[in-house]
Amino acid sequence: MARQLPPQFDVAVSVNLPSADPLRLAQQIRQDMWRAVQNVRGFSPVVKVEEQGNGLLVTAGGRVAGRVPGNLASEIRAVLDDKTKQTRWLRHARRHKVRTQIGQSEVKLPNSTTMFDKEAVTGQ
User: Fold this and answer.
1) Which of these, 29, 53, 64, 108, is most buried using a 10 Å CB contact count?
2) Nearest in space to 46 (alpha carbons), one of 4, 88, 92
3) Is the Cβ–Cβ distance between 98 and 20 less than 8 Å?
4) Tell me, what DSSP letter sits at residue 34?
């Protein structure tokens, strides 16, 4: 997940996490990483999630326009290693996966359309 393409890692930190919805996990990590290092001028966060065995390998970091501050990697590492944040990310990513499975197996929606008949609704 990156705002600028192609994604570029001028600084990167990796962590292994249990299996979860990769997109939702990346969104949460990117948001928390941005909050922690938004004071770094020219920083554009990037999160890469890859399946690895029974879990995920998450690489977080990003592109820096200009000089990379010496403490940037340690600030990103602090975000990734925060157990409270990891628990929230995984709960968020898992909840969506369960909701999708329930929605597909139990709820049958009728065919729908994006248009409505103004005449039938208003009588005009």
Assistant:
1) 29
2) 4
3) no
4) H
Q: Which helix (H) or strand (E) holds 110?
A: none
The answer to whether residues 87 and 95 touch, using CB atoms and an 8 Å cutoff, is no
**Residue 38 pLDDT grade (very low, low, confident, very high; cuts 50, 70, 90):** confident
Contact 80, 48 (CB under 8 A): no
State how far the Cα of 10 lies from the Cα of 22, in Å rounded to an integer.
Answer: 22
Q: What is the pLDDT of residue 5?
A: 62
Whole-prediction pTM: 0.69
Taking only the tens place, the pLDDT of each residue in 45-60 is 999 999 988 889 999 9
* Measured distance CA(31)–CA(50) in Å, rounded: 18
In one-letter notation, the amino acid at residue 123 is G
